[in-house]
Specification:
Layout lengths: L1 E5 L5 E6 L2 H4 L5 H15 L58 H17 L3 E4 L9 H11 L4 E4 L6 H7 L5 E4 L6 H6 L2 E5 H10 L2
Parallel strand pairs: 1-3, 3-6, 4-5, 4-6
Antiparallel strand pairs: 1-2
Helix pairs in contact: 2-3, 4-5
Length: about 210
């Protein structure tokens, strides 16, 4: 599979052959859904909590005698059915993370990359470096390239000036190749990969 390479200025910079085992798969929605669910569940804080009947400060004295009142038997005012009592079956602090095999996660990333290729929303650029970190200049270049919602993956490190210029642009995310993930790929309309990022991905999946 061969795709053209462009520059940030919109000029051609040759072409590149993509590995079919990474970029040429038939996308599976079930794998992508499992991976996105895993990512979102793992980053969920899980700090929600309420006070149950052992946490509220109410008397534990028996409210009235056991028999003869015609009322239900109660032994503490902290019971959930009383005003000011504890919450019954409320949320507790916990982790929402669940397991997903490493091979499934790797396969889902390959399917996400293939989905962008199939949808023709993958753009390959020669490099993402700027002489100065000016957002205005970068916005003009993105307009020429038709980028309004994109994930840009650079090499091992993001160029300082490019990262500084891109961080103020809405719906534009910039990550090093180590941070590439399925959720960020799918949440943006286009995926921009540098030549270094493609080399790193092909080396990663060998």
């Amino acid at each position: 599979m061969k795709l053209d390479i462009t520059t940030l200025d919109g000029a051609g910079a040759g072409s590149i052959d993509l590995d079919e085992t990474i970029f040429g798969l038939e996308p599976r929605a079930d794998l992508l859904q499992r991976m996105v669910r895993w990512q979102l569940a793992k980053r969920q804080a899980g700090t929600h909590a309420v006070k149950n009947r052992s946490d509220v400060n109410r008397t534990r004295k028996k409210l009235y005698k056991q028999k003869g009142t015609g009322n239900a038997r109660h032994g503490a005012a902290s019971a959930p059915q009383f005003r000011g009592g504890g919450r019954a079956f409320g949320p507790v602090v916990r982790s929402h993370a669940h397991d997903l095999p490493k091979k499934v996660r790797a396969l889902a990333l390959r399917h996400a990359l293939s989905a962008k290729v199939k949808a023709e929303t993958l753009i390959i650029v020669d490099d993402v470096t700027l002489a100065e970190g000016k957002t205005k200049n970068l916005v003009e270049r993105f307009e020429k390239m038709g980028l309004s919602s994109a994930l840009i993956i650079s090499g091992a490190e993001v160029d300082v000036n490019f990262g500084r210029a891109a961080r103020n642009i809405p719906q534009i995310d910039v990550l090093p190749v180590q941070g590439i993930n399925v959720y960020d790929i799918l949440r943006r309309d286009k995926l921009v990969l540098t030549r270094a990022a493609i080399d790193a991905l092909e080396a990663r999946f060998k």
